[in-house]
Amino acid sequence: GWCDGGSPSSNNSTVPAGDFYTLNFSDSGGSFFVQGFELSAIISAVRKANSASKVILVAHSMGGLAARAYLQDMATSADHLHASYGHDVQQLITVGTPHLGSMEAEFCSTYALDLCLLGGLNPDSVAELSLIPGSDALTVLNANVTMPAIQQYVSIVVTWAKGNTLTRLF
């Protein structure tokens, strides 16, 4: 019985009312700081469409880092404009977010350029490079771990043992 509000973009401020929305960030190839800037615009449009003061974010993978960049007041556009956190998030739930980076991003960047390109990943993009453990972007995001007071943070991470190695899903 929930109403799908569609997939708003940061370029379109006209968003229909709905109970939930899906979001795919633009193909700008930007870091999660740029994606956090896009998220800020979309949250504003969704709140306006629903006359709501706050939203609940469920973020998968790098989307969780974008949400953190916004919540930690670190969201910036490609043109270096700043989007201040608007105290408009009630809950953040991250699923499979690589808070400390992704070994897959490091592998793609270092060893498997052609293989990763075939899989739809561009190991040379700013987005992929920012996911490498120890990257400048992750270092900045994780150095500023002060999160605003919201009702709840939940992070769902999946790990399992396969043979004698530990495999992590990012």
Order of helices and strands: HEHEEEHHHHEEE
Which structural category do the helix and sheet elements fall into?
alpha/beta
**Average pLDDT level:** 84
In the predicted model, the low-confidence regions spanning at least 5 consecutive residues are 166-170
Largest sheet geometry: 3 strands, parallel
> How are the strands of the largest sheet arranged?
1-4-5
Q: Please state roughly what percent of the residues sit in beta strands, choosing from under 5%, 5-15%, 15-25%, 25-35%, 35-45% or over 45%.
A: 15-25%
- Number of helical elements: 6
Instruction: Give the termini distance in whole angstroms.
Output: 31 Å
Helix content: 25-40%
DSSP summary, beta strand count: 7
What is the overall silhouette?
Answer: globular
Radius of gyration over alpha carbons? 17 Å
